[in-house]
Structures are given as C-alpha cells and as structure tokens.
TrEMBL record:
Protein name: fructose-2,6-bisphosphate 2-phosphatase
Assigned GO CC terms: cytosol
Taxonomic placement: Eukaryota, Fungi, Dikarya, Ascomycota, Pezizomycotina
Keyword GTP-binding found: no
Top EC class for this record: hydrolase
Length: 477
C-alpha cells in the first residue's frame, strides 16, 4: 500500500459504498469511476450491480415489475439485492476486498437500514453516495443515451423503451426517500454536484471517495496526451536527464500546432507540461495558456539517471532483472517506481477530472500512468505499454467508457520502448510504421494518419474507439 498517500490507513478498514438514487441518475457511472480510481491507487475495489443479479431471473422487465404493489416483482428484486450483498460480504471476507460498492437504487430508508445492518454485523463501515437530479432534460438524455440500449430493452424500439423507462422511474418515485438519516455517513450529490451535502464522515478513505465524487462532471470534453518531441537523450538511448530536443524533436514541436488543431478544432484548451526542458520546448509554438507541473516530471531513475539500458544491465544486473520481474513496484535506487509516480499523479488526475479540455505534454512513464487511469489498464501491464513519440492521443469520456483516437505526425523518431527481459533496443524508428501522407490531411501538411484509417482517408486521422470502464456491452443496470 502506498505509504505516502495515507491509504495505508485502509489496511484495517473495509467500506461498503452504497449508491442511492432514482434510475438514470448516473449511479453506475459514478460507481465504476470510484472503482477505477481506487484500483489505480492500489485499493482493492469492486462494484456489485444489483441490476445484473436481477437480470439473471428477469432479463427484460417492463415498468410494472418495479411497482412496489407487484408482490412477485418485490420478491425478485429483494432476492437480487440479497444475492449482491451476500457476494459482496464474501468478497470482503475471502478476497481481501477493501471498498465494495453496492450499485442499486437503495432508495428507501428500510432498504438502507437493512444494508447497514448486514454490513455492520460483519464489522464493515458503510457510506452512502446519493445522486439526486431533477433536471428533466438531463434525465431524458440519460435515458436515450444509455437506457434504451441497455440489455433490458434488447431488440426494442428505442421510443418504446424510453417510455417504459420513464414509467419505471415513476414507480420508483412513489416510494423514493432521499437520504437524510442523521446517523448515516453520506454524500448527496445534487444536480451533478452543483450542490453537495456531506454527513458524518469518519475516516480518510471516505474523505477521498467523497472528494473524488464531488469533482466528477459530465460536461463533454476531451483530454489530449503527447510525449515531448524526440530528445537528445532519446537519440543516445539514455534515460532521464534534462536534455533538449533533437532536430527531429524540434520538428515535432513545430508541427504540433497543426497536429493539435486537427485534433482539437477551434476549442480553447489548457496546456500542461512538466518542468523539464524537453516538454517546455515541445509546446513552445502552441499559444494556449500553459501551466508547468513538477508532478508531471519523468519517473526518477535515481542512480541510473543518464545511463542507457545496456549500461544499467552491466552495472546493476540484479536491479535490471528485478525491474523486469515487477516493473510497477521496482523502485530505482535513489529514484522512483511506477507506484510512486501514481501517488504523485493523484492530484493531477483529480484536476483532470474537475477540468475541461486539457492537453498534457509529458513523459513516457507519466503518460503510461495517466493513460492507465483513463483506460483502466492493470498495473502489471501499464509500465509495458508502448506510448510512441510524435503522436497525440485524444481521450474523450463517454457515458460508459473512454473513446481513444491517435493522431500521428509523420516525423521519424527513435522508439524508446524496451520489451520485458530484453536488453536494450533503443533506436528502432517509429517512423518505419508511419504511412505516407494521405490526400487532404490537415494540420499544415503534418501527417495525421494511422494504420487503421487508410480506408477512410477523408478523416485523415486515427479512430480507435476503446471502451475503458467495462460497462459497455454488458452494462449492468
Ligand atoms: P439505473 O438505476 O437504471 O441503474 P443509474 O443511476 O445507474 O441508472 P447510469 O446508468 O449510471 O444511471 O446513467 C449513466 C448516465 O447518467 C450517463 O448518461 C451520464 O452522463 C449520466 N450521469 C452521470 N452522472 C450523473 C449525475 N451525477 N446526475 C445525473 N446524470 C448523471
Ligand atoms: O433501473 C433501475 C435498476 O438499475 C434496475 O436495473 C435494477 O434491477 C434496480 O435498479 C436495482 O435497484 P433495486 O434493488 O432498488 O431495485
């Protein structure tokens, strides 16, 4: 557990986070985001979605199933909730679960009292996260965006599905009791956090979860990620340092305004860099407001700073091997591990969640960690991801995932990627994989293509949609 972040306090605490709210209030989305955030911070977290348990017996319910006068419906819903709670309690007990999320409407006092009793009897803390929203237009949008495509309505006319879902909500409204039990720990997010009510918070992890949920928003936006242009150290195969850009890196800096324009359009974005020369030089021709963050500086290679992989292998063979055995946790002597980097990036991620359109120009290890957060990449894989030079990655949060697009400049650069258990291989050119210019490519002649889109050259860009929250196909509501 990360000792400098305070999460060590949770070694002893296990928390059940209970979502509360009417249907189509973003509960599942918030639950999945909490899980993603905590897992990224090495907290064992998991969401238990009662809808998916209910679906085992009742895959395509109509609105009347959710009428509390419907005795059979009530029985089945109760059984689904019990099955989810039982699985969650088992997970706490046998699988070292720290934060279990019970994702259901939990919209009556009696349901909440029952959950509280089940969890407390086993010694687990309970906190409630209610999403309350009375913005009819937003709710209708939510229904059309995610509910009409839910497995509940497979094969149905979207209009019929939307009407039925509206009726489902009406049935819930008849019995809905907003949370106001004075003894409970809760956060109430009203109209996407335009108002927040917090009650009886008792420990650090609860505070972190609350702060995180308060910062979530659903205003459409994108995040652009790029490494700095190729540096003099990249060319020499050396790690770390504070070298300037190589001539090809300079060309990338010159090309960046065009490349960014192609992927950003006319929007105003905020530009974040590290405090290192190579990221600052890379953004020198961009005119957006800029902010330098020390937290975005490259992973500190300690005693290996300034060495090549070959030199490290010769000088520190045991370290070289140990790093490949567990790259996420390996900490360079006098330097950092990927785990350390994640801890120092936490405030950056929080700012990114709060913020709007942001472009981050930073370093390979840092981008791996940021990308892993947004795309839900597990820790054993994230330090091994290939994040090429001279490429802009655009991430756009969607209802149940993150869409990824890549815009590649046609400017050759070395590859700084080294595969596990291989010795050094710096110097392979990413440019070998870059295809020739596409007619109509935008961005001042900068090539903004990707292998995937040769069949759609008019787009002149990469479009690879990657789902990241695990909610898409089998969205569990
Ligand atoms: P159900 O009870 O049917 O499972 P739900 O409350 O879990 O519904 P989601 O499936 O998470 O709702 O709904 C996702 C939609 O909610 C997305 O379109 C998202 O933009 C929107 N959304 C996210 N957060 C909020 C919020 N705080 N308030 C209202 N809508 C939100
Ligand atoms: O749409 C509401 C929903 O997500 C259903 O899919 C699910 O069956 C139900 O909420 C779970 O909540 P509850 O246990 O309160 O019925």
């Amino acid at each position: 557990m990360a000792s400098n972040f305070g999460f060590e306090q949770i070694e002893d605490s296990q928390i059940c986070v209970v979502m509360v709210g009417l249907p189509a209030r973003g509960k599942s989305l918030i639950a999945q985001k909490i899980v993603r955030y905590l897992k990224w911070l090495s907290v064992n977290a998991k969401s238990f979605n009662v809808g998916s348990y209910r679906r085992a017996d009742t895959p395509h319910p109509t609105a009347d199933f959710f009428d509390t006068e419907n005795v059979e419906g009530e029985r089945l819903r109760r059984a689904a909730a019990e099955a989810a709670v039982n699985d969650m309690l088992r997970w706490f007990e046998h699988e070292g679960g720290h934060v279990g999320i019970l994702d259901a409407t939990n919209s009556t006092r009696s349901r909440r009292a029952w959950i509280e009793e089940r969890c407390k009897s086993k010694g687990y803390d309970v906190m409630f996260v209610e999403s309350k929203c009375d913005d009819e237009e937003l709710i209708m949008n939510n229904i059309l965006e995610v509910k009409t495509t839910s497995p509940d309505y497979i094969g149905q006319d979207p209009e019929v599905a939307a009407r039925d879902f509206r009726d489902r909500i009406r049935n819930y409204e008849k019995v809905y009791e907003t949370i106001d039990e004075p003894h409970l720990t809760y956060v109430k997010l009203i109209n996407v956090s335009s108002q927040v009510i917090i009650n009886q918070v008792s420990n650090y992890l609860q505070t972190r979860i609350i702060y995180f949920t308060m910062n979530l928003h659903i205003t459409p936006r994108s995040i652009w990620l790029s490494r700095h242009g190729e540096s003099e150290f990249n060319v020499l195969g050396k790690l770390g340092g504070d070298a300037g850009l190589s001539p090809r890196g300079m060309s990338y800096a010159e090309a960046l305004p065009g490349l960014v324009k192609a992927s950003v359009g006319v929007k105003d974005i905020t530009l974040w860099t590290s405090t290192m020369k190579r990221t600052i030089q890379t953004t020198k021709h961009l005119t957006y407001p800029k902010k330098q963050w020390k937290a975005l500086d490259e992973l500190d290679a300690g005693v290996c700073d300034g060495l090549t992989y070959e030199e490290i292998e010769k000088k520190y063979p045991e370290d070289f091997r140990a790093r490949d055995d567990d790259k996420y946790n390996y900490r360079y002597q006098g330097g950092e591990s990927y785990r350390d980097v994640v801890i120092r990036l936490e405030p950056i991620i929080m700012e990114m969640e709060r913020g709007s359109d942001i472009m981050v120009v930073t370093h390979q290890a840092i981008l791996r960690c940021i990308y892993a957060y947004f795309m839900n990449v597990p820790q054993d894989q994230s330090p091994w991801m290939e994040i090429p030079l001279h490429t802009v990655i655009k991430l756009t949060p969607r209802a149940y995932g993150t869409q990824e697009e890549r815009f590649r400049a046609n400017i050759p650069a070395v590859s700084t990627f080294r595969a596990k258990y291989t010795s050094a291989n710096m110097g392979g050119e990413t440019a070998k994989r870059v295809k020739p210019p596409v007619a109509g490519a935008q961005a001042n002649g900068v090539i903004t293509i990707n292998d995937d889109v040769e069949t759609a050259p008019q787009k002149a860009r990469a479009v690879s949609v990657v789902e990241s929250l695990g909610l898409n196909g089998d969205k569990t509501v």
